[in-house]
Amino acid sequence: MKNIVIFGAPGSGKGTQSALLVEKYRLKHISTGDVLRAEIKAGTELGRTAKEYIDNGQLIPDGLMIDILAGVYDGLCPCEGVIFDGFPRTIPQAEALKRMLEERGTSISGMLELDVPDEMLMERLINRGKTSGRADDNEETIGKRLNVYKSQTAPLIDWYEKEGLRHAVKGYGSLEEINAALCAVIDRL
Ligand code: ATP
Ligand code: MG
Q1: pTM assigned to the model
Q2: Could you tell me which of 107, 110, 149, 188 has the fewest CB atoms within 10 Å of its CB?
Q3: Which atom number of ligand 1 is nearest to the Cα of residue 36?
Q4: Model confidence pLDDT, tens digit, residues 147-181
Q5: Quick check: 121 and 143 in contact, CB under 8 A?
Q6: Ligand 1, from 35, 59, 114: best to mutate by most atoms within 8 Å of Cβ?
């Protein structure tokens, strides 16, 4: 059983690479961003709450996000393993994920970090905004998201390093190259 956290800044390619990995390794994919966007689309109360934070480039509060994650996880598992994409994004979320998996008799096998230079992130997200239809893919909100990433999410790099789970991979080049680098790590886990 392999539970993997795919980690990186907004626009680092977590979603794209997750799609390739779930297919190859037969894992479940939990993208918290996708879960929240589905709630927004369905017009639920949760969706309305989430939209305010997302459109503002902010994170959904930890308590709420942790409950959502546990619900989605229990809807999909027990299973072969999961790719967590976009979760955790804060240290309390990482601690909650660890505890949640422990309670279910499993754990994270590895955290795969996609490293992409800042200028490239901005360029990718602005480009994505032209076709994604995402209200948060505009220059102002992207700037906020990158700052939130630096202050609230990047500290997880050290957190996972201390857990002995961090594996950094070059997150630019061709999709195939990046995928091969991720697979090389996963095959060793
Ligand atoms: P990527 O481009 O690498 O897929 P992203 O930052 O563009 O990453 P999502 O992961 O889809 O996009 O997340 C979109 C938004 O949803 C975030 O900016 C945040 O507001 C909210 N969100 C998603 N996951 C979490 C989380 N774990 N905790 C809090 N908020 C979250
Ligand atoms: Mg995504």
Answers
A1: 0.96
A2: 188
A3: 16
A4: 999 999 999 999 999 999 999 999 999 999 999 99
A5: no
A6: 59
